[in-house]
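The instructor's notes for this session suggest beginning with a concrete chain rather than abstract definitions. Hand out the sequence below and ask the class to guess, before any prediction is shown, which regions might be ordered.
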Amino acid sequence: SLKHDTRYETCLQATNGADYTSISCSDGFRTDFTPPVPGQVIDGLDKDTDYWGSANSISCQWSGFSDGESGVAHYEVSVSSCSGSSTPIFKKNVPSSQTKITVNAISFNNGQTYCCAVRASNVAGMYTNTIKSDGFKVVLSDPVAGIVQDSSGPYEDVSYTRQTSTAACYWQGFS
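After discussion, reveal the predicted structure:
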């Protein structure tokens, strides 16, 4: 049986009827029986975002995926709803040199939470498990403004204070 992370060659010896022999060998191959090591995935570029204000684009970034034997061949990147096992609204293979992507021309629903997901494939054709980001909530509307009062409780609003080191405020109705 073949051993992990070992180089092998295939050689063939041919002998003709006159007893002349020639040997020819392949350039060899190396075995890799393990998938790549998974990394981390974030929503956004350079820093993770939890809220997203666009209905039709998102950026995803990943790092830490590796394969010490055959190397990472490519990444499979997808974007889907974070709830359950939903069908991706975007899916693409990108080269191993790429560690971020901005996806355009997709359609997000306001208030829904989506995840970026990445899995790496090594040159031997094995994949990591799919690694998902922590998700981002699509927010396409302004928050509802509430009431702010200069006081420490409801039903009172002060215009003057004699306090020299503290101030209080009370708010309600924001959503």
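Then share the key points. The chain has no helices and 15 strands. The chain has a mean pLDDT of 91.
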